[in-house]
Amino acid sequence: MKKIAWILAVLFVVTGRSSARTFDRASGQSDELSQPLKIDLQMGLTALRSLIDAHLSSVMSSLRAAAFSEEVRSGDWKKMKDLMVEIMKGEVPSVILYIRPDGSYFNSEIGFTNKNVKDRPYFARLASGQEVVGDLVISRSTGRIVSVFGVPIMKDGAFVGAVAASVFLVPLSETLAREIALPKNMVFYALNDRGDTALHSDTKWLLEKPVNLRSETLALAVWEILAKKEGTTSYEFEGQNKVVAFTVSPLTGWHVVLGFSSAE
C-alpha cells in the first residue's frame, strides 16, 4: 500500500505542474487534453482506485473471517466482543456490528445499541444471504457518515445474523488524501450509482449529489461519469476549470474520479 501511495505522489508532482488544454462546455470551445498528461492522470487514477480498494478489501476480508469464527457464530456478544474490537482497530476507521436476525445490533464501541436496521435496504440483502459492499448511510448509533460493508451468517441455509462494518467516510477520505500527498490543485472523489458522494478530498461534500450543486457543466460531467466506465471530462465549479479522469471500482462499483484545476 505504501508503494501505491509513493507512485501516486510521483504522478501528482508531474500532473500538478503540468498545464492542459481543456474542453470548455460553457463556451463550446474544444481543446484536447495533451496525451502525456492524459496518461499521467489515468495512471494516477488507476493507482488511487487500487489504494481505495485495498483499504476496503481488507475490511471485507476481516468480516468474512469473523463470520466463520466460533465466537461470532455462537451468537453470544460476550464471546465475540474482543474479536469485534480487534477488527475495529484495523487501518480503516470503522465500528464493527453484530446484527441479529430481527435487525437489532451490537457495535464494537458501546455494545448493545437499542437501535434497529431491519428497515435499511442492505438488511434485506444480508437476510437473503448476500454480502453488502458500500451502502451509504448516516449511522443510527454514531450519527456519522458511513459506508456499510456486511457478511451474512448462515446456518443450514437460514439467516441467523450478520457481521458488518460501518466505515467512517470523513477520516477515510482524509487518510487517502494524506497517503497520496494530494496537491492543493487536485481533487479526488467517488460516486455511487445514484450519484451520491462516497469519498471526497474535501469532506464537506460527502453524501452530496454533485448534479444538484448549481453547475450545469458539473452536472453534465457527472452524468457522463455515471454513464461510462472510464474516460476523461471537464467542467467548471466554484470559479475553477476542472479536468478529471474517471473509472469504476470492481469492489464497490463506485465511480472513482481524479482531477486537477487547469488554466483557462
Structure in words:
The protein is of the alpha+beta class and 264 residues long. The chain folds into two domains: 2-55 and 173-262, 2-Layer Sandwich (Beta-Lactamase), CATH 3.30.450.20; 74-170, PAS domain (Beta-Lactamase, 2-Layer Sandwich), CATH 3.30.450.20. 36% of the residues lie in helices and 30% in strands. The chain has seven helices and eleven strands. It has helices spanning 2-16, 35-67, 70-73, 77-88, 121-127, 169-179, 216-227; strands at 94-99, 104-107, 111-116, 132-138, 145-155, 158-168, 186-191, 197-200, 231-237, 240-248, 255-262. It has a six-stranded antiparallel β-sheet, with helices on both faces. A five-stranded antiparallel β-sheet has the order 8-7-11-10-9, with helices on both faces. Helix 1 packs antiparallel against helix 2. The two termini are 35 Å apart. The relative contact order is 0.16. Residues 13-32 have low confidence and may be disordered.
List the helices and strands and how they pair.
Elements lengths: L1 H15 L18 H33 L2 H4 L3 H12 L5 E6 L4 E4 L3 E6 L4 H7 L4 E7 L6 E11 L2 E11 H11 L6 E6 L5 E4 L15 H12 L3 E7 L2 E9 L6 E8 L2
Antiparallel strand pairs: 1-2, 1-6, 2-3, 4-5, 5-6, 7-8, 7-11, 9-10, 10-11
Helix pairs in contact: 1-2
